[in-house]
């Protein structure tokens, strides 16, 4: 599922301030599944013949059949199926072929493939990146630094130039609660800030003696803090205490000023600063050691935004008696390539095969396609393999933006994401409260299989079902839970529980069949917040807002929202779909990371102002933040 940033996704958070329910995706705690209920079987499992009579075709779904697809998709030759690569493209071709083999019709017009473009972040332009440091502003007095040896622009930077006096601002931290402010007593207006990575007293891992990393160590927080104090550019340098070496990596974004990294050697030689001495003073005294450096810098950054092309693979099985009502069965087929953004082994350049995430779900869809050929459905079934899910649910967003059928025709969406590690646990089923029809339906299916389900009422969470739930479509989300190989190179086919995969795929088919024979189309229900289990995002201090960020933020200054969860501070404040947050709790918001960090710095019970762009104007809303449950 989707890695996205911030406190976890793009590159790590389930973004933003929404609850993520049974969520595969985000960093840190990948799935935070706290189940909100159990469905216990009241009967013994049906014998195979009786199961086949109840759900015609179900026995065609076999582990042997599915394992072949998992093996193909999770083979090293696929190079991790990263969105926008030839390997993702080859995987789309394979899935289209497999559907055709099973007699499934193309579902995207005359083709199986629905193409869409997406932002792949950025790269440095061939020309236009430079840094000169001098003792005065006149010509001939400055040293030109060597690109990629002494300095390197970050992809999390604006294109443009910054010229000004250099001011050392320590760690770039303003921590009122700790009585510590690196920016007190220095004027950053129109200046270039030199900032250390890390934080004071961080030997246990977190700033100010805390055990876990805090917002103060987040590079994007430091950049925003300097920007908000008037800096025109930021130069980052690794603290002498830092373990890591090499260039800092942040996924592309536009914080509103140019940002580059200097090597420690270049900072000391060119700026005449003894970094080790500064760090020792700060850590011993507990007080900042910020100062103007009597140097000027001219920084030029030129980035090119890259676009990638991905495809959804769409197959169609026409319904016999109600062809105008559509059930979507979906699974994403992209993964993380060689790691990098979204990987929980960010240092390793290794193939991430994504056998569980999500070759398992794809294999199950092919199994269901075989079963449906044996016994055609009453309603039309669209089988959809989504591309670019790991980049922010982009395939499902593209699907609902240009749907091959009218969205109003879609009666249910069933999403399979990571169903290959069941073991002895109950199968997790999300969206259990997304229609009033689901409770009796789930109980019947549970009785037929004789094994308990663990349910999550909410229909949100960072996988593709959330996109449909946001469009008022009832959903089911099947998932077998998190494990230590999630988003790591070790998610390989050898670790797949094949019996469990067969069980989960058969349950998905039983749910599809059960929806298919309902006399009326199921009603959509929005789950109130009390029933929605919480994964982050609450900040270190546990404040919770409840907005739902839109994952496709390309070209937006601020954060575009898809709305607010019912009963949350965001809903009470009057947040609407289409609002763009530009300020949160007094902090300017230019990127999703500014937004996440502003929330991380807030407290439960605090009353804050939120400024949003709405239509042609800016509206100021007031919200009292609540306490999110701790992880």
CATH class of the largest domain: Alpha Beta
Counting structural domains, the number is 3
Unreliable sequence segments = 2-35, 530-539
Distance from N terminus to C terminus (CA atoms, Å) equals: 19 Å
The amount of beta strand, in percent, is 15-25%
Averaged pLDDT = 89
Biggest beta-sheet profile: 10 strands, mixed
Structural class: alpha+beta
CATH architecture of the largest domain: 3-Layer(aba) Sandwich
Would you report the number of β strands?
Answer: 28
Globally, the shape reads elongated
SS summary, helix count? 13
Query: What is the CATH homology-level superfamily of the largest domain?
Result: Zn peptidases
Percent helix, as a range, is: 10-25%
CATH topology of the largest domain: Aminopeptidase
Radius of gyration from the alpha-carbon trace, in angstroms: 26 Å
